[in-house]
Design goal:
- The protein is α/β, with parallel strands linked by helices and 572 residues long.
- The chain folds into four domains: 202 residues, inorganic pyrophosphatase (n-terminal core); 85 residues, CBS-domain (Roll); 118 residues, HprK N-terminal domain-like (Udp-n-acetylmuramoylalanyl-d-glutamate--2,6- Diaminopimelate Ligase, Chain: A, domain 1); 116 residues, Diaminopimelate Epimerase, Chain A, domain 1, CATH 3.10.310.20.
- It is 35% helix and 20% strand.
- The protein is built from 19 helices and 23 strands.
- The protein has a six-stranded parallel β-sheet with strand order 3-2-1-16-17-18.
- The N terminus is likely disordered.
Length: 572
């Protein structure tokens, strides 16, 4: 998604009927038209969002678009001082659509005892590890704690994973009796002195850390053997001779209130998290698809993923529990009802309504929804009709958009799709704006046919739609021109692009309709199965081109005509 949710519909600071600035994602409903959006698609989305925000206060309706704006639509938005709708690249649910919880975290310098207690108190199995800036450092789970605890049952050498003395004191609830060298970390082998004196001394090496009880004679011998530290258990009284000798030799003396067995267990739990945490962290971003998150959760040994921002700062943790319920964006479709024309991921969204004026397509839903489809010239006519029906005072900006969508889609009320209702609504809106339809229509038309500086690809996709007609996959582009020489100069390049597209997308037919509103006729460029066009319109195609009398409407004249022959041509 581009532009972010903060780009909510608030044209000129006056039209947005709501004052809430940050609605919950679950309360957002996007209203969006087809891919390669035209003026009617964009204007009806904005207009219907305005209407819905007035009549339904339960949700925040957000107008959106499924692609770049064409020159005509840019002209309209600028003329009526309205911000472009946000661009949505996919309706597939992402992490941003989930109810994210604040994660319970630990620091790399916390000890195992702390994080184990945290897990028990919070009834969780995994804890993210973050630094002081909340940037992700690693992750630790119950399995990591269990594995470390098993590995240290016999104890070993902590030279590679030194124990912070302050953490050890906190873990043991103990106190430092002597630390003549101001040691901050304990290193060396860990040894429990729970055997005969002679055997103990035979096993000890310089630098060892020894855990033992109230045995003054052994304590003295261990200090003389240059042990680095003694952990004396059971709150035993420590003789002044031992303290004096430790000060001379530089030995750390720590007193533990626990017995030797418990002290040994707690010693293992004083290990800092940075020494055992995993840095193989499964991470996702706010706009990672839920389908990808599910896959990562299943594959993760932690059965979870960590959600981070662009600066590696932790946002949340997502577990299997968070994925139990369906997560879907809510959407209303305008000016289309076919999957081939819809934005990516529409089948993963919860479609609530369809407002359209085209043929019935192939989009299906799990639940019954409101569908309003009329055989009229423009979706904006339908939206304006809703506002008139509810006696809503239409702001000038919205009236301008709706009129623009109607005039654009009906070619200033001249196309065969134009109905009396389109004309009635258009003149009603024009009266409100105090404009002449013919005059404004020509201004709008001029803005829509500027192809200077555009490549063949850009021209072909200015208004391009895909259709599944019977067994045939068809792509149809359309453009209006006043200067036919201007488009003729680019004709060869457009044909090459049409052929490239046909092969790439495996279209059976690619057609490009060139309409000159000042003339009653249509030039058509064709690539692919030309028999479809020849049979449908009784014409002969030469050099990938033909002319058809009469100004064609793609949805009323062209698609219905070729639709029949797409399914029957091979039977003729």
């Amino acid at each position: 998604m581009k532009n972010g949710h903060e780009s909510k519909f608030e044209p000129s600071g006056t039209v947005m009927p709501r004052e809430e600035a940050g609605a919950d994602n679950q309360k957002q409903i996007f209203i969006i038209g087809h891919e390669n959006p035209d003026c009617d698609s964009v204007c009806s989305a904005i207009g219907y969002a305005y209407f819905k925000n007035i009549v339904d206060r339960r949700y925040l309706y957000i107008p959106a678009r499924a692609g770049e704006l064409n020159s005509e639509t840019k002209f309209v938005l600028e003329k009526f001082d309205i911000e472009p709708p946000i661009e949505i690249e996919s309706l597939a649910p992402t992490a941003s659509d989930m109810e994210l919880k604040k994660p319970i975290v630990a620091s790399p310098h916390d000890c195992l005892k702390y994080v184990a207690s945290l897990m028990k108190e919070s009834n969780i199995r995994t804890v993210p590890i973050v630094d002081s800036n909340r940037k992700l450092s690693g992750i630790i789970g119950l399995k990591d704690i269990a594995e470390h605890y098993i590995d240290t049952m016999g104890f070993g050498d902590i030279s590679t994973t030194p124990i912070d003395l302050n953490i050890l004191i906190d873990t043991l609830d103990g106190k430092v009796i002597a630390n003549p060298k101001d040691v901050e970390k304990l290193t060396g082998r860990i040894f429990i002195a729970a055997m005969q004196k002679a055997r103990i001394l035979s096993k000890i090496r310089a630098g060892d850390v020894v855990i033992l009880g109230d045995r003054t004679d052994v304590q003295i011998d261990l200090i003389n053997s240059e042990c680095s530290a003694l952990i004396i258990t059971g709150n035993s009284t420590i003789s002044q001779e031992v303290i004096r000798l430790a000060s001379e030799k530089g030995t750390v003396i720590v007193s533990s209130p626990h017995d030797t067995f418990v002290t040994a267990k707690l010693f293992a739990l004083s290990t800092p998290l940075h020494s055992i945490m995993s840095k193989e962290v499964p991470v996702v971003g706010l706009y990672t698809r839920v389908s990808e998150i599910k896959r990562k959760v299943v594959e993760s040994e932690y059965r979870s993923v960590l959600l981070i921002d662009a600066d590696n700062r932790l946002i949340s943790i997502i577990t299997r529990t968070d994925l139990l319920h369906p997560i879907r964006k809510k959407v209303i479709l305008v000016d289309h009802n076919e999957i081939s024309q819809a934005v990516d991921g529409v089948q993963e969204a919860e479609i609530l309504e369809i407002i359209d004026h085209h043929r019935v397509g192939d989009i299906s839903t799990l639940m019954p929804i409101h569908v309003h489809n009329e055989p009229i010239g423009s979706t904006c006519t339908i939206v304006a009709g809703f506002m008139f029906l509810h006696q809503i005072d239409i702001p000038t900006e919205i009236a301008g958009l709706l009129l623009s969508g109607i005039l654009s889609d009906t070619l200033i009320l001249t196309l065969s799709t134009t109905t009396e209702r389109d004309k009635e609504v258009a003149y009603k809106l024009a009266d409100k704006l105090n404009v002449e339809i013919e005059e404004y229509g020509k201004e709008l038309l001029t803005a829509s046919i500027d192809i200077k500086g555009k490549s063949a690809t850009e021209i072909l996709f200015l208004d391009f739609k895909e259709y599944l007609l019977g067994t045939k996959k068809v792509g149809v582009g359309q453009i209006m021109v006043l200067d036919e020489e201007e488009i003729s100069a680019k004709e060869d390049d457009i044909k090459m692009e049409m052929e490239r597209l046909r092969k790439e997308k495996q279209y059976d037919l690619v057609a490009f309709l060139i309409t000159n509103p000042l003339k009653k006729g249509e030039a058509i460029l064709v690539k692919g199965d030309t028999r479809i066009i020849e049979k449908a319109f009784a014409v002969k195609i030469q050099d990938d081109k033909c002319a058809i009398p009469g100004t064609l409407s793609r949805k009323k004249d062209f698609i219905p005509a070729i639709g029949y022959f797409c399914s029957t041509i091979y039977e003729l």
